[in-house]
Amino acid sequence: xxxxxxxxxxxTTLALLSLGLFAVLKAATISCRNxxxxxxxxxxxxxxxxxxxxxxxxxxxxxxxxxxxxxSWRRSEQLMNTTESALGRTLQPLYEAYAxxxxxxxYLIYNDGAPTxxxxxxxxxxxxxxxxxxxxxxxxxxxxxxxxxxxxEEGYNYPSxxxxxxxxxxxxxxxxxxxxxxxxxxxxxxxxVYSCSIPATFHQDLVHMPQLCARSSSLMTPDRHLATLQxxxxxxxxHFAKSDSFLxxxxxxWMAQELKIHLLTETWQRKRQExxxxxxLPYHVYNIKAIKISRQSYFGSYQDHAKWCxxxxxxxxxxxxIGDLNRxxxxxxxxxxxxxxxxxxxxxxxxxxxxxxxxxN
Length: 361
Known about the structure:
By secondary structure, the protein is of the alpha+beta class. The protein is built from 6 helices and 19 strands.
C-alpha cells in the first residue's frame, strides 16, 4: 500500500540521514586530544630536561601537561614517545589520513630541523609545527622540538635528540573558518615544510599553504603580521608572525611594546648566542634564568629549549605566549612567531614556574 511505501521510504531516508550525520560528526573529530583520547579545546606540554644525576631516574621523556579542562599543571602519566601521550593521541588522525589518502583531510608538517635532513635549514623560518584539518575543523600544534614528528609513513615517535633539553608546545583546536587567517600567518613565518597533503578542495580558501607545500616562493611577504584567532570553543588568541625582513628581537621590538607589558622570557640560553635583558624601550624584556618544577626540583635556561614568555607579575593584563624563536642575535634574521592568550589558568601555571630572572644591567 501507499502508506507502507511511504513509511519504508521515511525509514530509509532517516537511516541515510543518520549515517550522513555520523560521517559528519566523525569527520569533525580532528581535535587536540588528552591522554585518554578525549577531544580538548587546547593543551600545553612542557617536556622536562633529562637530569644528569642517575639517581633521579628521569628519562628525558617526562612532561607537564595543562589543558582547557584543568586549572594547573599535571605531571604526565605517559612518556613523550608513547602513542598514549597527548601528542601521540592527537597525531593519530594524521596517520589515518595518510593511510586512507583522504581527499577531505589536509596536513602540513614543518620544522627547520626536519627529521629527514642532517642539517638545520637557515633558508626557512625558525619554526616547528603541524596542522591537520578538514572542512569542519582541525588543530595547529606549535612546538620547539627539532626532528619532530617523523614523516607520517613512519608513524608516531619522539626523537632521541629531543630528550636532553626542556621543550614546550601548544595545540589548539580551530574551526575551519580560522584557517584562512592561519594561512596568512604561515606565509610570514616561511616554514620548512617536509611533509604535506593539501587536496584541491582547499585551494580556493587557502592560498599560501599549497604554495608552501609545493615549496614555491611568494613574491610579496609582509615583514610582520598580527592576527586574532579564536579556538573552537571561543578562547581568543593573538598570533605574532615575523618574517626574516623584520630584523629585530621579536620580544623587545614588537611583542612587549604591542601588548604594553614588561615580559619575562624563557628561551634557550646558549653561550654567546643569547641577548641580555633589555630595558631600553618603554616596555622591558627580562630573561628567565631558572625554572622550578617543585621545591626541590629546578633547572637552568641553558638546559631549556622551550620558548615562552609571560607578563611580569603585578601587571593588570596577564599574557602568556608560546612559540618558536629564541632571544638571540642570530634569531633577529629568522622568521617565526608566538601565539598569545590572556587565559588566567595558563598564566598562573607558567608564572609558578619562574624561579628567578635577570634584571637589566
